[in-house]
Design goal:
Bound molecules: nicotinamide-adenine-dinucleotide
Distance between the termini: 70 Å
Helix content: 40-55%
CATH topology of the largest domain: Aldehyde Dehydrogenase, Chain A, domain 1
Number of strands: 20
CATH superfamily of the largest domain: Aldehyde Dehydrogenase, Chain A, domain 1
CATH architecture of the largest domain: 3-Layer(aba) Sandwich
Structural class: alpha/beta
Strand order of the largest sheet: 14-15-16-13-12-17-18
Length: 486
């Protein structure tokens, strides 16, 4: 059975998951047409919820909160274990859904989008098992308690991964929740809701309301009975959520945009620094918030960097996401495709030097939102392609004369999410890392660490996900003071 037959079979496409049941929307909020970006053809129509559905889901989460918050951590860990196992058992179903709803190459969906999403569940389970919910500070007892009902809003670029990065720590903390995934990628979210049901999540602990940002997202943000809202998305949406949330003084966690630098220091081995830098910028077709899209390189070695970067881009096989050998599928949707094309045009207009790629689709791909892996060199910090998040396969190479200037360029952005530093001398690289204003700095391309806190400085957001910090996002702090027993 294909993932679509599977979803149709249970009438999931017409339902929301509220209070442990698959319900038809109470509001007539219409449908979202899911488009396969590799063909531009509609593949599914998904029912959207409205404000009344948000009320129903929040009420269910509120009713479920006290009993769920009171469950022993070991019971919550058992639920997380079952969720983890089911995601892995259904990995192929998830990979197919992700590939069709946002265009990920199937090999990439199988190797990264699904297993890394499952890792967030495992990490939350492990951290929960060891977490000190009660500590003493002198005579005062410090309790860490679940914050309450959480609204979780996720984007389309890593749909399942962004869901588990929020749901897993919220569950571990003892919170209940309403998830609103991106209306552009709701299929993997429906499969995830099934996993929650089949894993035995008590009714109301996890609810799914599909919907768009202005209706369902805004209703969740302003809802008086939601204690916390966590959004991953654009800085624009993050600001709107914070504004809508302000009157109810709920906690707001924001994981937003990025324009991450990759500083290649003068002592770096370019053959080890440049090709993985190109791969990292282009990973997931450049649709990762922390993609290192500004490669900051020593000016006297620019020609070598350009040659290595061009060769690395030539390794990228753009094509049908389900075909063997494809490393990169299309951009995820039409709006994003048009944005990428507009930014490539802006780079050319502003006089950046095109190394490879450029406007339009790759040769032989007439249909589908396929973009050409594009690298500009000699990019100046004032250019739009150096300042604005593109969220597509476009890399800007920016030369510097001194390390001082390299750090300045790295920090010359309103964002501060990820950063990379390459260098032979680790102490020197660490010294540069210390000067970069970003939430995560990678030196010499380390392995992904699901326990490393992730989040933004500046307009990249507020709060941290992953690891212990990700769990603590969902906790309140209570100090209990009592006179000493005499
Ligand atoms: P988006 O902002 O358009 O949408 C993100 C989510 O917010 C969607 O679910 C959307 O429906 C919802 N939303 C939109 N307007 C809203 C509103 N007014 N109120 C409430 N919710 C609203 O972003 P996108 O295009 O789906 O994702 C791409 C963006 O996400 C990029 O800017 C990227 O950098 C960012 N992103 C950040 C991270 C991170 O961890 N920092 C991770 C992935 C993506």
């Amino acid at each position: 059975m294909t993932f679509l037959e599977h979803l149709r079979c249970g009438e999931r496409l017409q339902r929301l998951f509220i209070d442990g049941h698959w319900l038809a929307p109470a509001d007539d909020a219409g449908t979202a047409i899911v488009v396969d970006p590799s063909t531009e053809a509609p593949i599914a129509s998904v029912a959207l919820g409205g404000a009344r559905d948000v009320d129903r889901a929040v009420a269910a989460a509120r009713r479920a909160f006290a009993p769920w918050a009171a469950t022993p951590p070991a019971a919550r860990a058992r639920l997380l274990d079952r969720v983890h196992r089911l995601i892995l058992e259904r990995a192929e179903l998830f990979a197919q859904a992700l590939s069709h709803e946002m265009g990920a190459a199937i090999a990439y969906a199988r190797a990264a989008q699904v297993p890394l999403a499952a890792e967030h569940i495992r990490v939350a389970r492990d951290n929960l098992a060891a977490y000190p919910f009660e500590t003493a500070r002198g005579a005062t007892t410090i309790l860490r308690e679940p914050i309450g009902v959480c609204a979780l809003i996720t984007p389309w670029n890593w749909p399942l991964y962004q869901i588990t990065a929020k749901v897993a720590p919220a569950l571990a903390a003892g919170c209940t929740m309403v998830l609103k995934p991106s209306e552009l990628s709701p299929l993997s979210a429906l499969l995830f809701a099934e996993v929650m049901q089949d894993a035995g999540a008590p009714a109301g602990v996890f609810n799914l309301v599909n919907g768009d940002g202005p209706v369902v997202g805004a209703a969740l943000a302003s809802h008086p009975d939601v204690d916390m809202i966590s959004i991953t998305g654009s800085t624009r949406a993050g600001v709107l959520v914070a504004q809508a949330a302000a009157a109810t003084v709920k906690r707001v966690a924001q994981e937003l945009g990025g324009k991450s630098p990759n500083v290649i220091l003068p002592d770096a081995d370019l053959s080890r620094a440049v090709p993985p830098g190109v791969a990292a910028a282009m990973r997931n077709v450049g649709q990762s918030c922390s993609a290192p899209t500004r490669m900051i390189v020593p000016r006297q070695r620019l020609a070598e960097v350009d040659a290595l970067a061009r060769a690395a881009a030539a390794e990228i096989a753009v094509g049908d996401p389900r075909a063997a050998g494809t490393t990169h599928g299309p951009v995820a949707n039409r709006a994003q495709f048009e944005r990428v094309q507009a930014m490539i045009a802006a780079g050319l207009e502003e006089g950046a030097r095109l190394l490879c790629g450029g406007p339009g689709r790759p040769e032989g791909l007439e249909r589908g939102f396929y973009a050409r892996p594009t690298i500009f060199s000699d990019v100046r910090p004032t250019m739009r392609i150096a300042r604005e998040e593109i969220f597509g396969p476009v890399l800007a190479i920016m030369p510097y004369d001194t390390v001082e200037e390299a750090v300045e360029i790295a920090n010359a952005t309103e964002y501060g999410l990820g950063a990379h530093v390459q260098g032979a001398d680790l102490a020197g690289a660490r010294a540069v890392a210390a000067r970069i204003r970003a939430g995560q700095v990678h030196i010499n391309y380390p392995a992904w660490d699901p326990n490393a806190p992730f989040g933004g400085y500046k307009r990249s957001g507020n709060g941290r996900e992953y690891g212990i910090e990700g769990l603590e996002e969902y906790l309140e702090t209570k100090a209990v003071l009592a006179p000493p027993v005499s």
